[in-house]
Structure to design on (579 residues):
């Protein structure tokens, strides 16, 4: 059997076309009746029905398992059934040729010719079935005129031979077309298989890239956690001006490195379609002012004036707060980077129809030509090859920002002129939030007061990270118990009640996911809030945490305020559980 044979497709097609074959047989019987009388056409139609029933039963096992390879015996049964059917079906041609006059001869030629075309269309994918079904049609088409020339004195042998030659030409063209169709289908099938293999390889490569990014993310974030924490703690000490400048340099460099890492991870999420957006009510004016405040000092250090003009915007909108601020931060960062003098202005307003929020960042920087502006949102694209050397960056920020804007249902565009400046415009659908949906920011004293004598279990294998968390929490009155692996965390959680558990993901002996699952099953901390404290920031890692009931994620490198807010928020109302 040929590798290209598809008996299942033939069996299914024959079943679907059974009503068509029976209806056409009724038509042929009617024509034969008009030309020569009803008796023999009626007998022929009865034979057709019997043959079709046999065919239905012969192909039934193949229809029931179309993807399986039929046995050799079943193939022979189906081939003989197809041969019987075409022999009976085109048998009416013999009757029409000898009993139907000139019109009958015409129908007698057209019937097997049409039958050949029919089986060529739906049986070419199973070569043995096709040849078996074609043989009776060919016999009628080629030998009926010759037989007539021999048996019937009134038929000219030369004319009948010409009819046979025409039949040979028709059959030859048809068989050539069938062979080409089979070859084309085989080539298409091979191309499809190759494409499927390439798709699987691409998926494997994508999975390998995701694993690589996860590993790199973890390995970079762990030492970065120490750098950021050390810089934060140093800022709280009494420093000389020179020392303060060094600490500021350290903080700024770590922020840049973290931004580059986040850009790469965001690009991976966008490419894999795994970007997930939140819908949270935010204080819009406060969010705009916070973004401006973040970059104002850097702009002013360059002698650039940064201002804001907030128009008629709602106090509360529903959006993804992290991604909204990320877009604004990228736009303001870009403006600060390329503006050496003049001003940077943040403008915001609303469109009434359709209801949309717009935010513009206008600068008096170097500007761009229309050609550069047209490709500025492409990945890894910057204004010119020297931009990276002069200003830094990967060329991913604007590309990611546009993808985020579009994922949020909006758009990000630019107008620019060389030597004049640029205007980046963000538009987003405006969904109004409830006035009470955004809680007021608690003051720092209220937050830290809630940490007095708080019992915290920290499951973390890295000594530096252990020290960082303790330096953040213990001065505020927390009692931190450290478990150096997941197994030790489970053991401690079985015998001692804690108020909060901070759980790393990658640990020796037992990882954080499995440790959390075991803690939730039994012991003194079944209902204790567990916070994921991890360098694994990819979506699949968050989904793993969600599968064990952990909804709060603290991504390394940690900042003190974020950790404190998360711990305070996690403490249930009504008191603590630990003694």
């Amino acid at each position: 059997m040929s590798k290209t044979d598809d008996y299942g497709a033939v069996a299914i097609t024959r079943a679907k076309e059974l009503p068509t074959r029976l209806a056409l047989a009724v038509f042929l019987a009617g024509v034969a009746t008009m030309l020569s009388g009803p008796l023999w056409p009626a007998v022929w139609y009865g034979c057709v029905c019997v043959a079709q029933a046999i065919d239905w039963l012969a192909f039934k096992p193949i229809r029931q398992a179309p993807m399986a390879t039929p046995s050799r015996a079943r193939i022979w049964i189906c081939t003989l059934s197809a041969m019987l059917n075409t022999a009976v079906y085109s048998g009416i041609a013999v009757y029409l040729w000898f009993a139907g006059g000139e019109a009958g001869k015409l129908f007698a030629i057209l019937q097997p010719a049409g039958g050949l075309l029919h089986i060529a269309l739906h049986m070419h994918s199973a070569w043995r079935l096709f040849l078996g079904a074609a043989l009776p049609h060919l016999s009628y088409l080629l030998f009926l005129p010759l037989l007539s020339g021999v048996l019937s004195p009134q038929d000219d042998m030369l004319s009948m031979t010409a009819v046979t030659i025409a039949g040979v030409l028709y059959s030859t063209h048809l068989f050539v077309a069938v062979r080409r169709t089979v070859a084309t289908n085989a080539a298409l099938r091979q191309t499809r298989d190759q494409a499927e293999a390439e798709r699987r390889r691409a998926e494997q490569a994508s999975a390998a890239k995701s694993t690589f990014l996860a590993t790199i993310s973890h390995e970079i974030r762990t030492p970065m956690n120490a750098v950021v924490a050390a810089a934060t703690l140093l800022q709280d000490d009494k420093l000389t001006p020179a020392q303060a400048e060094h600490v500021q340099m350290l903080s700024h460099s770590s922020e840049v490195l973290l931004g580059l890492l986040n850009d790469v991870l965001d690009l991976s999420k966008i490419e894999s379609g795994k970007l997930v957006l939140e819908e949270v009510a935010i204080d819009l004016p406060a969010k705009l002012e916070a973004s401006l405040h973040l970059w104002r000092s850097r702009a002013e250090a360059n002698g650039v004036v940064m201002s804001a003009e907030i128009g008629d915007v709602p106090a509360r909108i529903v959006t993804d707060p992290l991604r909204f601020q990320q877009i604004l931060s990228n736009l303001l960062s870009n403006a600060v980077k390329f503006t050496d003098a003049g001003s940077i202005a943040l403008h915001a307003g609303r469109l009434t129809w359709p209801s949309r929020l717009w935010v513009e960042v206008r600068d008096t920087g170097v500007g761009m030509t229309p050609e550069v502006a047209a490709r500025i949102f492409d990945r890894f694209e910057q204004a010119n090859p020297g931009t990276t050397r002069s200003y830094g960056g990967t060329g991913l920020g604007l590309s990611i920002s546009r993808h985020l804007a579009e994922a949020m249902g909006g758009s990000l565009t630019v107008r620019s002129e060389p030597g004049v400046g640029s205007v980046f415009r963000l538009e987003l659908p405006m969904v109004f939030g409830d006035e009470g949906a955004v809680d007021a920011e608690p003051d720092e004293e209220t937050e830290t007061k809630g940490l007095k004598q708080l019992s915290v279990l920290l499951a973390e294998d890295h000594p530096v990270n252990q020290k960082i968390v303790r330096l953040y929490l213990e001065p505020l009155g927390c009692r931190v118990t450290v478990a150096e692996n997941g197994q030790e965390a489970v053991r401690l959680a079985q015998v001692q009640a804690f108020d909060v558990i901070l759980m790393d993901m990658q640990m020796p002996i037992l990882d954080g996911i499995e440790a959390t699952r075991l803690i939730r099953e039994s012991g003194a901390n079944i209902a204790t809030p567990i916070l994921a404290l991890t360098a694994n920031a990819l979506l699949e890692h968050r989904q793993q945490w969600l599968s064990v009931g952990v909804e709060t994620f603290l991504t390394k490198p940690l900042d003190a305020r974020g950790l404190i807010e998360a711990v305070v928020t996690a403490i249930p109302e009504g008191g603590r559980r630990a003694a």
